[in-house]
Design brief:
This protein is α/β, with parallel strands linked by helices. Helix content is 34%, strand content 11%. It is built from four helices and three strands; from the N terminus they run αβαβαβα. The chain has helices spanning 10-20, 40-48, 65-72, 87-94, and strands at residues 25-27, 57-61, 79-82. It has a three-stranded parallel sheet with strand order 1-2-3, covered by helices on one side. β2 (57-61), α3 and β3 (79-82) form a beta-alpha-beta unit. The protein is globular, with a radius of gyration of 14 Å.
């Protein structure tokens, strides 16, 4: 079983992650950042908080990594996924971080 929680902004996401203790965090683009950029401040806040420091984080982004990797702080993330992506690709990236990764692998 899986529960999905969503937040409308980085501050809300940090608060939710600290109180709900998710097994995995997917972090998407920030509407205030350059198009396709993830919210690096949110990612760093999650890494600094004791409640979420060890929680795996996956960045969902539209930018080409070779052009923007330095500004994105990708070392903060355990993995990243470029948009658009298929359900199969999402499963491939997420499954190593889930407890049921050995379970049904069909998408």
């Amino acid at each position: 079983n899986m529960t999905i929680l969503t937040a409308s902004d980085g501050e809300g996401g940090v608060f939710m992650a600290q109180t709900e203790h998710p097994d995995l965090i997917l972090l998407g683009e920030d509407g205030r950042a350059p198009q396709g950029a993830i919210n690096v401040e949110t990612a760093h806040a999650l890494r600094l908080a004791s409640e979420t420091r060890a929680t795996p984080m996956i960045a969902l982004m539209m930018l080409r990594l070779d052009q923007h990797a330095p500004m994105l702080g990708l070392s903060t993330f355990d993995a990243w996924l470029l948009k658009p992506f298929s359900a199969e690709r999402l499963f491939q990236v997420v499954s190593p971080f889930t407890r049921s990764s050995a379970a049904n692998t069909r998408v």
